[in-house]
Amino acid sequence: MKKCRGRPKCPRRVEQTPDITYFKPRGVPLADLEVVFITVEEVEALRLVDVEGLKQEDAAIRVGISRRAFWEDLKAARMKIAFALSTGKAIEIKGGNYISAENADISEDTNT
């Protein structure tokens, strides 16, 4: 078992969880594919920067983490997706350490 070092990851605030969580190359049987896993918060980082066009600093504020932590999530997501696309692997979106933005807003309102 791998030991954790340093601080534990802070949960990220995610505005949209993906409806579709699996992508695979066309024409290759699922049984023949290796899978690359990407977390929900990594997909959120991609969405905020690459789809919505936010700067990393603004996106980090929306997610509720430091700019450095956000950059690491974004870098990991881009690396995993580039690896999967360039080597013909499937991509599965699952897991992570996140809370939905709706729940985060409700809990913040009750604390004030």
Description:
The structure is a single chain. The chain is of the alpha/beta class. It has four helices and five strands, in the order E-E-E-H-H-H-E-E-H. The chain has helices at residues 40-51, 56-63, 67-87, 101-111; strands at 12-14, 22-23, 35-38, 90-93, 98-100. The chain has a three-stranded mixed sheet. A two-stranded parallel sheet has the order 1-5.
> What overall geometry do the principal axes of the alpha carbons give?
globular
User: Can you write the helix and strand succession as a string?
Assistant: EEEHHHEEH
Quaternary state of the chains: single chain
Give me the side-by-side strand order of the main sheet: 2-4-3
Could you describe the largest sheet, including whether it forms a barrel? 3 strands, mixed
Q: Ranges with pLDDT <50 over ≥5 residues? A: 106-112
End-to-end Cα distance: 40 Å
Helix content: 40-55%
- The pLDDT mean sits at 89
**Helical stretch tally:** 4
Percent of residues in beta strands?
5-15%
Task: Tell me the radius of gyration.
Answer: 16 Å
Helix/strand/pairing class, anyone? alpha/beta
